[in-house]
Design goal:
single chain, 300 residues, alpha/beta, seven-stranded mixed β-sheet, 53% helix, 12% strand, globular
């Protein structure tokens, strides 16, 4: 009798709608509870990760119980190759400050343009010298190029043969032992930046760079990590072999160096200085012959 009643009940529209509504309501409650659980776990996990990063920063910088830095090979005469004035402190600041503190290391900067966009070439060149002074680089070790084929232009890729010739001349003149520049993504995907990488890659692949000169590139990272500040410490520590980090005092030096580029201190660069991981952490990768061959074949 009960089964017959149930069978008739299924044909009752009111009963059917009630059953469907109850099922949907139960499903919605389960989804809400599940979402709450996920959010709670995410919040707790994020909090623990942030606390871990802060503790690691103190362990590295203040308590000095953990060594984060792993330096480059043969840092005697290091050449930093940049594209524009302000690249040296916006991207390479932690590397430069760590190297200039080493007593037997001389840091050279080769900037391949004056940043003459909007007609500010002379001003930006002067700003570069003042910035490098803050970073501890001797003015005699700075070269700023002004070449018609190497304009400050976000829509233009530089001719690699010209860039390669300028860099090779510098390596030979100053007997450079280590060269550091951008990687194939150029940090910000600026064509002037990654033009330098491909020029150096061609030099390395053809064997023109002396064997006594090591080549490193500054690693590009995704946008989230780029603005994670010290939250990138664990990832950088685990996945990068050559690393540099700076404490609050050195970070202030980088800020001061960037403030010398008065023509470039727009609001978004001020935000960059606050949140950018590149103002605190640099990770470098040594140029690998097999990677170079692959990059050049893909580029061609």
């Amino acid at each position: 009798m009960c089964e017959v009643s149930q069978a008739f009940a299924w044909h009752d529209p009111f009963f059917f709608l009630t059953y469907v509504n109850d099922s949907v309501s139960n499903f919605q409650i389960e989804i809400v509870n599940y979402t709450k659980d996920i959010l709670e776990h995410l919040i707790i996990g994020s909090f623990l990760y942030i606390v871990t990063c802060i503790l690691l920063y103190f362990a590295i910088i203040r308590w000095k119980i953990l060594n984060f830095n792993t330096t480059i090979k043969n840092p005697k005469r290091v050449l930093i190759v940049t594209a524009h004035p302000d690249d040296e402190c916006m991207f390479f600041g932690p590397t430069i400050l760590n190297l200039t503190k080493q007593p037997d290391c001389t840091v050279y900067v080769l900037c391949l343009s004056t940043g003459s966009n909007y007609g500010m070439g002379k001003k930006r060149k002067h700003e570069l010298y003042k910035s490098c002074r803050c970073l501890g680089i001797n003015s005699n070790c700075i070269t700023v190029m002004s070449h018609d084929d190497l304009p400050d232009d976000i829509s233009r890729r530089w001719p690699e043969e010209i860039v390669a010739e300028l860099i090779l001349n510098h390596i030979e003149i100053y007997d450079i032992t280590t060269l550091i520049t951008f990687d194939k993504s150029g940090i910000s995907s600026h064509p002037n930046h990654f033009s330098i990488y491909y020029a150096v890659a061609h030099l390395s692949f053809s064997g023109d760079i002396p064997k006594s000169c090591n080549v490193y590139v500054l690693e590009s990272i995704n946008v989230m990590r780029k603005y994670w500040f010290i939250l990138d410490i664990p990832i950088s520590f685990l996945f990068s072999r050559t690393r540099y980090i700076v404490g609050p005092n050195d970070r202030s030096v980088i800020h001061k160096a960037m403030s010398e580029h008065k023509s470039q201190m727009l609001w978004f660069r001020r935000l960059y200085l606050i949140f950018s991981r590149y103002v605190v952490i640099n990770t470098l990768q040594e140029m690998n012959p097999s990677d170079i061959e692959l990059d050049l074949s893909v580029d061609d």
